[in-house]
Amino acid sequence: MDIKKLTPNLSVSPQIMPTDMQAVKEAGFRAIICNRPDGEGADQPTFEKISKAARDAGLEAAYLPIVAGKVTDEDALAFDKVSADLPGPVLAYCRTGTRSATLWSLAQADKRTLVDILAATTAAGYDMGGVVRRIANGGKTPTETGDATYEIVIVGAGAGGIAAAASLKARKPGLEIAVIDPADVHYYQPGWTMVGGGIFGPEQTARTMGSLIPKGVHWIKAAVAAFEPQNNAVILDGCRVVKYKRLIVTPGLKLDWHKIDGLVETLGQNGVTSNYRYDLAPYTWELVRGMKAGRAIFTQPPMPIKCAGAPQKAMYLSGDAWHRRGVLKDIDIQFNNAGGVLFGVKDYVPALMDYVKKYDATLNFFHNLVAVDGPAKKAWFDVSKPDTPVERVEMEFDMIHVCPPQTAPDFIKVSPLADAAGWVDVDQATLRHKTYDNVWSLGDVMNAPNAKTAAAARIQAPVVAENIIADMRGGSPVAQYNGYGSCPLTVERGKIVLAEFGYGGSMLPSFPKTIIDGTKPSRAAWFLKEKMLPPIYWKGMLKGHEWMAKPEKIGAK
Predict the structure, then answer these.
(1) Degrees (nearest 5) of the Cα angle 291, 293, 298?
(2) Where does the record place a coiled coil (predicted)?
């Protein structure tokens, strides 16, 4: 038997035999549902034989035969009633289990989210792509799809989405482009480090979405529920369908605050903060300004995360503020990193270590935050050193800056576009999907082995635009992405270590060493971060002006 659990009360399986009933009983089931009509296959026992064996084993049995490929809305309602009336747990079966999984999916459509249903069925090995529109429509067959079709559809209006739309419009102004995003506000997230350090006000990092969508681009203010790449379709919440000739997927990633026990309840109070949220970054600066003594913990979760330097940027700017106020000697700084190194590109580590020593910070590697008790001012870390059993340690704090665990968005994880880890599966050079050749992806959501930074998206957007235009002309990809990412490490107020690197940790500096030597702290790099990068973002990248972002041609040296 190959039994797959969908919920604690319902599992599905391929055909079971009368001789399996005792094992079904011993597995904890109290009832079975047969969804396979008698006579469908020559090797198939009749339901009469199945039900007799079930009764002999002390199981109840129900017969709800469904013709393969013809699950009706009424069938789903009937399945919901039968499975609810039988004593649980219940095992439903057909030839492969797919019909039973489909019935459950449609029956649950008005009780669970589409993402939850797809996650459960995908984990069980069943593809519900063929009925995703019906699930999105509350389990009912849509009577009107209301299709809208665009030459290019972009999912996500963050840095990558708007930059890609602007770059495409700059190349071909008449393109019919739609951007799908439910958000009202667009954030310049790299600025939140500066908010937490008291340099920027939060309002400098936010603008209305409507003011940034490029002229002539349609904004569909909705959330995406699912993808049907085989039909060139995106399904929105409420089962509206948007069709495309070419698709760009760039919704960013998910900050998984709930993965740390107790964190959500205490964020923004009890000394618990994070620069990874617009509303919390000001609280970071409030805590830093008010702290005169005690322990400050800065955390970093397992990779991948957006801007891997951000957790330590918060530590450096806080340490600098305490140093300037003369209270650093009374503050115990702890940097608890789930990884085993301070920074992934070794060339920048010596300069960073100078500041670790300056602020007398303790580096605790392989320490992953798993729980927080804000009122008690305690945090717990799982310490996973190589070749050593995992040990849970408790640490007290007066202030803790948390970098949350990060994953692909749920609706991406369960989509046909995702790889095994849940990220959009692209060619790392062309950023084209490995399976669907009219789909591209950029930004934090895709699986190329680069740093997830806004600087990376700035370089990726023109690459995607160039390759889409080439594809529209019937040609092969012409531009390639070299893995460029940048992390301006704010080691003190007024100085930055400007880390710029590509695939494999190769150094990719934008400036000659005589202007900015990225391996050393410099005031020039600080000026770039504070004064130049925000207007480059708002007035350049999001407007289709590819300053210092000219796409690298394939084959170029």
Answers:
(1) 70
(2) none
Sign of CA dihedral 503, 507, 512, 518: positive
Judged on CB neighbours under 10 Å (0-12, 13-18, 19+), 165 is: buried
Q: Where are the domains of the chain?
A: 4-136, 149-252+408-415+426-553, 257-407
Catalytic residue among 94, 239, 307, 403: 307
The tokens describing 306, both together, are 């957006």
Question: What is the reported pTM?
Answer: 0.87
Do domains 149-252+408-415+426-553 and 257-407 share one topology? The answer is yes
Longest Cα–Cα distance of the chain, Å, equals 86
| Residue 341 burial (CB count, 10 A) | 11
DSSP 102: H
487 is annotated as an active-site residue: yes
Per-position pLDDT tens, the chain of length 557: 899 999 999 999 999 999 999 999 999 999 999 999 998 888 899 999 999 999 999 999 999 999 888 889 899 999 999 999 999 899 999 999 999 999 999 999 999 999 999 999 999 999 998 899 899 888 888 766 667 899 999 999 999 999 999 999 999 999 999 999 999 999 999 999 999 999 999 999 999 999 999 999 999 999 998 899 998 999 988 778 999 999 999 999 999 999 999 999 999 999 999 999 999 999 999 999 999 999 999 999 999 998 888 999 999 999 999 999 999 999 999 999 999 999 989 999 999 999 999 999 999 999 999 999 999 999 999 999 998 999 999 999 999 999 999 999 999 999 999 999 999 999 999 999 999 999 999 999 999 999 999 999 999 999 999 999 999 999 999 999 999 999 999 999 999 999 999 999 899 999 999 899 999 999 999 999 999 999 999 999 999 998 777 888 887 55
Q: 4-136 in CATH: which number?
A: 3.90.190.10
User: What fold characterizes domain 149-252+408-415+426-553?
Assistant: FAD/NAD(P)-binding domain (3.50.50)
> Cβ distance 284 to 273 under 8 Å?
yes
**Catalytic hit among 34, 94, 403, 487:** 487
Q: Give yes or no: 307 in active site.
A: yes
